Protein backbone atom coordinates (compact mmCIF):
# COMPACT_ATOMS: atom_id res chain seq x y z
CA UNK A 1 0.00 0.00 0.00
CA UNK A 2 1.25 3.48 -0.90
CA UNK A 3 0.69 6.27 1.65
CA UNK A 4 -0.36 9.76 0.57
CA UNK A 5 -0.44 12.23 3.43
CA UNK A 6 -3.59 14.23 2.75
CA UNK A 7 -4.86 16.33 5.59
CA UNK A 8 -7.83 15.19 7.62
CA UNK A 9 -11.19 16.28 6.29
CA UNK A 10 -13.42 18.86 7.86
CA UNK A 11 -17.15 18.27 8.05
CA UNK A 12 -18.23 16.12 5.12
CA UNK A 13 -20.46 17.92 2.69
CA UNK A 14 -18.58 21.23 2.90
CA UNK A 15 -17.03 22.75 -0.20
CA UNK A 16 -14.25 20.61 -1.61
CA UNK A 17 -11.46 21.40 -4.03
CA UNK A 18 -8.44 19.72 -5.53
CA UNK A 19 -5.33 19.66 -3.36
CA UNK A 20 -2.66 19.84 -6.04
CA UNK A 21 1.02 19.05 -5.67
CA UNK A 22 1.76 22.40 -7.33
CA UNK A 23 -0.22 24.45 -4.79
CA UNK A 24 1.78 26.98 -2.80
CA UNK A 25 2.84 25.67 0.58
CA UNK A 26 2.09 22.04 -0.24
CA UNK A 27 3.94 19.81 2.25
CA UNK A 28 7.12 18.13 1.07
CA UNK A 29 5.88 14.74 2.21
CA UNK A 30 2.69 15.07 0.18
CA UNK A 31 4.59 15.83 -3.03
CA UNK A 32 7.16 13.10 -2.39
CA UNK A 33 4.43 10.53 -1.81
CA UNK A 34 3.20 11.04 -5.37
CA UNK A 35 6.72 10.76 -6.70
CA UNK A 36 7.06 7.47 -4.85
CA UNK A 37 3.79 6.27 -6.35
CA UNK A 38 5.05 7.29 -9.80
CA UNK A 39 8.29 5.34 -9.26
CA UNK A 40 6.38 2.20 -8.30
CA UNK A 41 4.14 2.48 -11.34
CA UNK A 42 7.13 3.12 -13.59
CA UNK A 43 8.63 -0.19 -12.45
CA UNK A 44 5.31 -1.89 -13.19
CA UNK A 45 5.18 -0.25 -16.61
CA UNK A 46 8.53 -1.79 -17.46
CA UNK A 47 7.90 -5.26 -16.09
CA UNK A 48 4.13 -5.65 -16.49
CA UNK A 49 3.36 -3.37 -19.46
CA UNK A 50 1.18 -1.02 -17.41
CA UNK A 51 0.31 2.18 -19.27
CA UNK A 52 -3.45 2.57 -18.74
CA UNK A 53 -4.88 2.78 -15.21
CA UNK A 54 -8.28 3.14 -13.61
CA UNK A 55 -8.43 4.91 -10.23
CA UNK A 56 -11.32 3.93 -7.96
CA UNK A 57 -12.33 3.45 -4.34
CA UNK A 58 -14.89 1.69 -2.16
CA UNK A 59 -17.19 4.63 -1.43
CA UNK A 60 -17.36 8.36 -2.24
CA UNK A 61 -15.19 10.96 -0.47
CA UNK A 62 -12.01 8.88 -0.33
CA UNK A 63 -10.02 11.39 -2.45
CA UNK A 64 -9.73 9.15 -5.51
CA UNK A 65 -10.17 12.05 -7.96
CA UNK A 66 -7.49 13.97 -6.09
CA UNK A 67 -5.18 10.96 -6.51
CA UNK A 68 -6.03 10.67 -10.21
CA UNK A 69 -5.26 14.33 -10.97
CA UNK A 70 -2.06 14.52 -8.91
CA UNK A 71 -0.77 11.22 -10.25
CA UNK A 72 -1.38 12.47 -13.80
CA UNK A 73 0.51 15.69 -13.04
CA UNK A 74 3.38 13.80 -11.40
CA UNK A 75 3.66 11.49 -14.39
CA UNK A 76 3.67 14.48 -16.73
CA UNK A 77 6.45 16.14 -14.71
CA UNK A 78 8.73 13.23 -15.59
CA UNK A 79 8.36 14.00 -19.29
CA UNK A 80 5.63 11.51 -20.12
CA UNK A 81 2.75 12.33 -22.42
CA UNK A 82 -0.25 11.90 -20.11
CA UNK A 83 -4.02 11.84 -20.58
CA UNK A 84 -6.51 12.14 -17.72
CA UNK A 85 -10.00 10.80 -18.43
CA UNK A 86 -13.09 11.57 -16.34
CA UNK A 87 -15.17 8.41 -16.47
CA UNK A 88 -17.79 9.45 -13.95
CA UNK A 89 -20.57 9.82 -16.49
CA UNK A 90 -23.23 10.26 -13.81
CA UNK A 91 -21.89 13.19 -11.78
CA UNK A 92 -18.89 14.60 -13.65
CA UNK A 93 -17.00 17.27 -11.72
CA UNK A 94 -13.40 17.24 -12.94
CA UNK A 95 -14.11 19.66 -15.79
CA UNK A 96 -15.16 22.25 -13.20
CA UNK A 97 -12.23 21.67 -10.85
CA UNK A 98 -9.79 21.76 -13.77
CA UNK A 99 -11.47 24.85 -15.24
CA UNK A 100 -12.06 23.05 -18.52
CA UNK A 101 -15.35 24.82 -19.22
CA UNK A 102 -19.02 23.87 -18.89
CA UNK A 103 -21.18 21.72 -21.17
CA UNK A 104 -18.01 20.34 -22.71
CA UNK A 105 -17.94 17.28 -24.95
CA UNK A 106 -16.22 14.20 -23.63
CA UNK A 107 -16.36 10.44 -23.19
CA UNK A 108 -20.13 10.06 -23.61
CA UNK A 109 -20.16 12.22 -26.74
CA UNK A 110 -17.30 10.26 -28.30
CA UNK A 111 -18.94 6.91 -27.53
CA UNK A 112 -22.25 8.09 -28.99
CA UNK A 113 -20.53 9.40 -32.14
CA UNK A 114 -21.50 13.02 -31.44
CA UNK A 115 -17.87 14.09 -31.84
CA UNK A 116 -14.45 12.61 -32.49
CA UNK A 117 -11.93 11.83 -29.78
CA UNK A 118 -9.61 14.58 -31.02
CA UNK A 119 -12.47 17.11 -30.81
CA UNK A 120 -13.14 16.19 -27.16
CA UNK A 121 -9.54 16.17 -25.91
CA UNK A 122 -8.39 19.34 -24.14
CA UNK A 123 -4.84 20.52 -23.56
CA UNK A 124 -4.29 21.72 -19.98
CA UNK A 125 -1.06 23.60 -20.60
CA UNK A 126 -0.57 24.72 -17.00
CA UNK A 127 -0.65 21.08 -15.88
CA UNK A 128 1.22 19.82 -18.95
CA UNK A 129 -1.35 17.09 -19.62
CA UNK A 130 -4.34 16.30 -21.82
CA UNK A 131 -7.84 16.04 -20.35
CA UNK A 132 -10.86 14.14 -21.64
CA UNK A 133 -14.01 15.27 -19.80
CA UNK A 134 -16.91 12.93 -19.04
CA UNK A 135 -19.19 14.78 -21.44
CA UNK A 136 -22.98 14.96 -21.42
CA UNK A 137 -24.43 12.61 -18.74
CA UNK A 138 -26.16 9.75 -20.58
CA UNK A 139 -29.21 7.80 -19.34
CA UNK A 140 -27.29 4.50 -19.33
CA UNK A 141 -23.65 5.05 -18.25
CA UNK A 142 -22.76 1.40 -17.50
CA UNK A 143 -24.19 0.18 -20.78
CA UNK A 144 -22.41 2.94 -22.69
CA UNK A 145 -19.07 2.08 -21.09
CA UNK A 146 -19.61 -1.60 -21.97
CA UNK A 147 -19.81 -0.89 -25.70
CA UNK A 148 -17.04 -2.00 -28.08
CA UNK A 149 -16.49 1.72 -28.80
CA UNK A 150 -15.10 2.09 -25.28
CA UNK A 151 -12.41 -0.51 -25.90
CA UNK A 152 -11.61 1.20 -29.20
CA UNK A 153 -11.30 4.56 -27.45
CA UNK A 154 -8.99 3.11 -24.79
CA UNK A 155 -6.83 1.55 -27.50
CA UNK A 156 -6.58 4.86 -29.36
CA UNK A 157 -5.62 6.71 -26.18
CA UNK A 158 -2.98 4.07 -25.45
CA UNK A 159 -1.44 4.71 -28.86
CA UNK A 160 -1.48 8.51 -28.42
CA UNK A 161 -0.14 8.74 -24.87
CA UNK A 162 2.51 7.20 -22.64
CA UNK A 163 0.14 7.04 -19.67
CA UNK A 164 -3.67 7.18 -19.54
CA UNK A 165 -5.42 7.58 -16.18
CA UNK A 166 -9.17 6.95 -15.89
CA UNK A 167 -11.00 8.39 -12.89
CA UNK A 168 -13.96 6.07 -12.21
CA UNK A 169 -16.83 6.10 -9.68
CA UNK A 170 -16.55 4.09 -6.42
CA UNK A 171 -16.97 0.32 -6.75
CA UNK A 172 -19.70 -0.02 -4.14
CA UNK A 173 -21.89 2.56 -5.87
CA UNK A 174 -21.95 1.39 -9.51
CA UNK A 175 -20.24 -1.19 -11.73
CA UNK A 176 -18.48 1.37 -13.95
CA UNK A 177 -15.00 0.88 -12.46
CA UNK A 178 -15.17 -2.88 -13.03
CA UNK A 179 -16.32 -2.32 -16.61
CA UNK A 180 -13.50 0.14 -17.34
CA UNK A 181 -10.99 -2.06 -15.51
CA UNK A 182 -11.42 -4.82 -18.08
CA UNK A 183 -10.19 -2.48 -20.83
CA UNK A 184 -7.10 -1.11 -19.06
CA UNK A 185 -3.85 -2.56 -17.75
CA UNK A 186 -4.74 -2.35 -14.08
CA UNK A 187 -6.49 -0.58 -11.22
CA UNK A 188 -5.16 1.56 -8.39
CA UNK A 189 -7.46 1.31 -5.38
CA UNK A 190 -7.81 4.35 -3.10
CA UNK A 191 -8.54 3.82 0.59
CA UNK A 192 -9.24 6.71 2.95
CA UNK A 193 -7.75 6.19 6.39
CA UNK A 194 -10.30 5.28 9.10
CA UNK A 195 -13.26 5.67 6.77
CA UNK A 196 -14.80 2.75 4.86
CA UNK A 197 -15.21 -0.47 6.91
CA UNK A 198 -12.48 -3.05 6.27
CA UNK A 199 -15.03 -5.64 5.10
CA UNK A 200 -16.42 -3.17 2.57
CA UNK A 201 -12.92 -2.45 1.24
CA UNK A 202 -12.12 -6.15 0.90
CA UNK A 203 -15.47 -6.73 -0.81
CA UNK A 204 -14.86 -3.90 -3.28
CA UNK A 205 -11.41 -5.21 -4.20
CA UNK A 206 -12.82 -8.73 -4.62
CA UNK A 207 -15.55 -7.35 -6.86
CA UNK A 208 -12.90 -5.89 -9.15
CA UNK A 209 -10.85 -9.08 -9.14
CA UNK A 210 -13.93 -11.23 -9.83
CA UNK A 211 -14.60 -9.02 -12.86
CA UNK A 212 -11.13 -9.81 -14.19
CA UNK A 213 -9.57 -6.48 -13.21
CA UNK A 214 -5.89 -6.55 -12.23
CA UNK A 215 -5.57 -4.60 -8.98
CA UNK A 216 -2.03 -3.19 -8.96
CA UNK A 217 -2.09 -1.84 -5.43
CA UNK A 218 -3.77 0.57 -3.06
CA UNK A 219 -3.19 4.17 -2.01
CA UNK A 220 -3.90 5.33 1.55
CA UNK A 221 -5.25 8.89 1.79
CA UNK A 222 -6.16 11.29 4.62
CA UNK A 223 -3.52 9.60 6.77
CA UNK A 224 -2.93 11.46 10.06
CA UNK A 225 0.87 11.50 10.03
CA UNK A 226 1.17 13.72 13.09
CA UNK A 227 -0.91 11.35 15.21
CA UNK A 228 0.93 8.28 13.89
CA UNK A 229 4.32 9.77 14.75
CA UNK A 230 3.35 10.82 18.27
CA UNK A 231 5.56 9.05 20.80
CA UNK A 232 8.13 7.81 18.31
CA UNK A 233 11.83 8.58 18.79
CA UNK A 234 12.02 10.78 15.68
CA UNK A 235 8.59 12.37 15.89
CA UNK A 236 9.85 15.82 16.89
CA UNK A 237 12.26 16.39 14.01
CA UNK A 238 9.90 14.89 11.44
CA UNK A 239 6.93 16.90 12.66
CA UNK A 240 8.99 20.07 12.82
CA UNK A 241 9.99 19.70 9.18
CA UNK A 242 6.63 18.74 7.73
CA UNK A 243 3.57 19.03 9.91
CA UNK A 244 3.35 22.81 10.17
CA UNK A 245 2.56 22.96 6.47
CA UNK A 246 -0.21 20.41 6.89
CA UNK A 247 -1.87 22.44 9.60
CA UNK A 248 -1.95 25.47 7.29
CA UNK A 249 -4.06 23.70 4.67
CA UNK A 250 -7.75 24.66 4.80
CA UNK A 251 -9.42 23.14 1.73
CA UNK A 252 -11.04 19.75 1.67
CA UNK A 253 -10.00 17.43 -1.14
CA UNK A 254 -12.11 16.17 -4.00
CA UNK A 255 -13.53 12.68 -3.61
TrEMBL record:
Gene Ontology CC entries for this record: plasma membrane
AAA domain boundaries: 64-176
Catalytic activity reported: L-tyrosyl-[protein] + ATP = O-phospho-L-tyrosyl-[protein] + ADP + H(+)
Class in the EC hierarchy, top level: transferase
UniProt-recorded Gene Ontology molecular function terms: ATP binding; identical protein binding; non-membrane spanning protein tyrosine kinase activity
Keyword annotations of the record: ATP-binding, Kinase, Nucleotide-binding, Transferase, Tyrosine-protein kinase
EC number per UniProt: 2.7.10.2
Family: Belongs to the CpsD/CapB family.
Protein name: non-specific protein-tyrosine kinase
Amino acid sequence: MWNLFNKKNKTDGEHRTLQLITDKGMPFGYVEAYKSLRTNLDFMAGSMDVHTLVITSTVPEESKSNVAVNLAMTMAESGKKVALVDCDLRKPVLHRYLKAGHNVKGVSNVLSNQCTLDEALQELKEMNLTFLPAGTPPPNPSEMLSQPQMQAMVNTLREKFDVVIFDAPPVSVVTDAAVIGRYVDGAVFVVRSDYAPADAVRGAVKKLQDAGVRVLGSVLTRYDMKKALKGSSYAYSYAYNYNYAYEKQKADVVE
